[in-house]
Amino acid sequence: MLAGELYDPFDTELVTARERARDLCLALNVTRESQRGERRRILKDLFGAGGDIVWMQPPFYCDYGANTYLGTRVFFNFNCVVLDVCEVRIGDYTLFGPGVQILTAPGAWLRAMSRRALSRQETRAGSSEHPPVPRPTPVRAYAPRRAAQHDVRRHT
Known about the structure:
3-stranded parallel β-sheet, elongated
């Protein structure tokens, strides 16, 4: 992931980190507007940097939080999502409107063959910890079939 390794979402360390972030987001999302001190404490614990000066309108969701680094006076409006599998750096005085999503894609550049090869190696090694990586489904598999062409001219 951050070290340039292949992202494994089932890694126990990553699962623990995600659970921590989800618990912090849940705690943040149930706070009241008047609980500014509690929100500040949660945000400091959640983000890699900048949690002490961010303004957040819950609900907010993220994968890890620790991979997100905020500049000075960042504002998140309602219902924002940051999937920070990779590092996310947000500059000073950035304002996010409602419903903004920041999505990082680790390994989108990996070819499907590489992912399948990794899955086969784990299966051969007898690893029951990781389920096999699903094979990509071509988009054309979901394309609707063309309706038969009918002659719509009037016959008189």
